[in-house]
Amino acid sequence: MIARSTYLRINQIKGKQKLDESLVSRFQLVKKRETVDFELNSEGVLCFHGRVCVLRNSELRQSILREAHSSPYTMHPGGNKLYRDLCELYWWPGLKWEITDFLSKCLTCQQVKAEHNLPSGLLQPVKIPLWKWERITMDFVSGLPLTPTKKDSIWVIVDRLTKSTHFIPVRSDYSLQKLAKLFVAEIVRLHGVQVSIISDRDPRFTSRFWRVLHEALGTRSDFSTAFHPQTDGQSERVIQILEDMLRSCVIDFKGSWEDYLPLVEFAYNNSHQSSIQMAPYEALYGCRCRTPTCWTELGERRLLGPELISEIDPSLTLEKDSEIWAEGKLSPRFIGPYRIVKRVGPIAY
User: Fold this and answer.
1) DSSP code of 273?
2) Euclidean distance between CA atoms 114 and 280, whole angstroms
3) Please, which residues have CB within 8 angstroms of residue 233's CB and are 6 or more apart in sequence?
4) What is the mean pLDDT of residues 148-175?
5) Fewer C-beta within 10 Å: the chain N or C terminus?
6) pLDDT greater at residue 334 or residue 127
7) Helix, strand, coil share (%) of the chain residues, nearest 5
8) 135-285 is classed CATH 3.40.50.10810
9) Model confidence over 217-241: pLDDT tens digits?
10) What does the pLDDT average to over 94-100?
């Protein structure tokens, strides 16, 4: 069924088709049966493969485009959708180009459509850190299932140089004072005071208290531009990996995500990162941390143990009546000397 407005427009087109110079030759070809592309339908309207041929009239074409694009029943479709809709009923040379030109001038589309093209201008990378944990990024993963300890969020803090991370379980209603204590206890305690911190415009990071804290520590806070997550793409990517790892843990091992968070942090920091071509722990400590998969390697190395000990052991054998120093935990480093009375084991006296 064709809408009444469309039916009236087709009748309007029919009455003017024979007067349009661009279509006169098409009519002649149809009459002479010299074309299979053009034909007259049952109502005498010239069509191209079943679609109404629209005459060369810019006002008429613009009217068709407006109705197909801006009516309450279409709601400003994109170029491909609009082209598909119009192709079912109308045809004229350069239809797709005219649709593109029409959409580029639609003010509503310019105001509400998402931008899918790359922004103009060159990328402005943030400053490269000179040392480990000197410049960091941070963000929150919120809306997680509530744990038995009432935690529902994760504070993600990433070093921009080594890509090493800390995942701190928190509650979304933690006060700024509580977050500040956690920051000092979990980050400053291990890595010292940072030079720069990049974060989004979370109200917790833009508050006066947070600014005063960083002024006291001598740290500069750099906030990302609104609706520009690329500024802190590092944290966004880590959060994506973190969520995938937590999902895997909950599926495979069940239980609360908070129980697995320390191991998730370890696994992330001990796994290879393509951006630095090594594991974060390698960049931070100089080597990867040991895992159960290292025991095979250790087992091979232990084969050399007895030979090494047998070479060194004789030189460490102490004789009776020798005098030695004893060590204590919190006592003075060495006490004595004590005289050896008897050897009671291979290395016990």
Assistant:
1) B
2) 36
3) none
4) 91
5) N
6) 127
7) 45, 15, 40
8) no
9) 766 655 444 444 444 467 778 888 8
10) 92
Compute the distance between CA of residue 188 and CA of residue 197 in angstroms, rounded to an integer.
13
* Torsion of the alpha carbons at 92, 98, 99 and 101, rounded to the nearest 10: 180
Q: What is the pTM of this model?
A: 0.52
Tokens at 129, concatenated:
């850190």
Neighbours of 191 (CB within 10 A): 18
CA–CA dist 231, 13 (Å, integer): 54
The rounded distance, in Å, linking the Cα atoms of 166 and 5 is 64
DSSP label at residue 187: I
Residue 55 near residue 13, CB atoms below 8 Å: yes
What pLDDT, in 10s, does the model give residues 134-153?
888 888 888 888 999 999 99
Alpha helices in the chain (DSSP H): 4-17, 21-31, 58-70, 79-87, 95-104, 107-112, 176-183, 189-191, 203-206, 208-217, 233-253, 257-269, 280-285, 295-302, 305-316
**Contact present, 274 and 237 (Cβ < 8 Å):** no
Rounded CA separation 51/211 (Å): 65
- Sequence spans of domains, the chain: 1-112, 135-285
Residues 6+ apart with CB under 8 A from 57: 16, 20
Q: Which alpha helices (DSSP H) does 286-333 contain, by range?
A: 295-302, 305-316
Topology of 1-112 in CATH?
Endonuclease III; domain 1 (1.10.340)
Other C-beta atoms closer than 10 Å to the C-beta of 251 total 8
Q: Which residues contact 222 (CB under 8 A, 6 or more apart)?
A: 126, 196, 197, 198, 199
Q: Which amino acid is at 24?
A: V
| Residue 206 dihedral angles phi and psi, to the nearest 5° | -95, 0
Return the amino acid letter for 125.
Answer: P
Q: What is residue 157's three-state secondary structure? A: strand
